[in-house]
Predict the structure.
Amino acid sequence: MLNVKELEAFRAFIECGSVTLAADRLGRTQPQVGRLLTSLEESLGFALFSRSGKRLRATPEGWRFYKEVDRVMGELQSLSRSAEQIRSGSSDHVRILTAPHVTKALVAPALSSVAREIPNLTAEVASRVRLDIETWITQEQFDIGVGILPLDSPAVESEPFLRTSVVVVMAATHPLTRLKVIQPKHLYDTALVATHSRSLLRQSLDRMFREEKRKPDIRFEATNGLIACELAAQGLGVALADPFVALSSGASGLAMKRLSVKIPLDYGFLYPVGKSRSFAARRLAEAVVRTARDRLPEIGVPASDFEFI
């Protein structure tokens, strides 16, 4: 059985970067933290650190182990908070799992609204990219998730609340901004910014060009939609984007245009199967829907492109 104090010391060392700073965080002495780290390494049977004089550096195995430690310790903290909520008779705590752009565009404003309604509200927000959510959703404790559907997991129930469509983003000075609606042919000889090959947007882009037997002129590739929008705003190319991602990017000088081809994006709530929905989770879901409605004018495309379900 692993020792919780040893795991705390290990996480503090990784996150602080030194035994000295880890000791300060934990309120322990350096020798105490050093002994906890050594004991953990001996218990595990593999090297967590490489040593150069008195300096420790995490090994690749150490970094892999840290990811699991961070997850488990987070769950322990969440369990402690849940126990406190039960002990005090309060149900005003909500654990939220969401994608980064959804946090900024929808969840944070909605959470602010609910906090005004429920003065004693407490919350944990875990942000995961969409490609990782299906893995994390079976490992993390949460009350409500917000993200793009579909999500294939027997551990969750999904409830769509909004259908929107992909938009085209570019610098405000780009020649295509003179058009009200962008057609695929307008992109054929245009420099493009694309997201990575596994993303929904990239797959939609490739399919759109493949159907016309054309090859996209991708000049720059981004790991996510936020970066793609920022690059597009700098005049490096035109990109397909989720409208809420474009809104979240906050990129100066970014123009959004309708795409004539409808590429639907479904937003939905995720709930753990078999778990009752708390008052706070229900209020948050309502607030997210209100926030989405309120932010539509900022996107600058017709309301008919958005369908609340």
About this structure: The longest strand covers residues 156-165. The mean pLDDT is 89. The chain is about 45% helix and 25% strand.
